[in-house]
Design brief:
elongated; mainly alpha; 72 residues
Amino acid sequence: MAQTSDEAVRILQKLIGICRDGENGYWEAADHASKPELKKFFHEKSLDRGQCAGELELELRKIGVLDFKGSG
């Protein structure tokens, strides 16, 4: 396994935090949307952000980092 830069790990953790914040924000927007098409749109965006966060977490796991929390 190649040596991993602490800065790269911090950046990935920050990106994960940003994705999770977006996931939660879109989900909340969906909960407050009155039109079904908006609810669907926001739920889809929430799922997209969650998937992005999951992919970034997988990359951290591959290099042995298990702390996914970040600030976004």
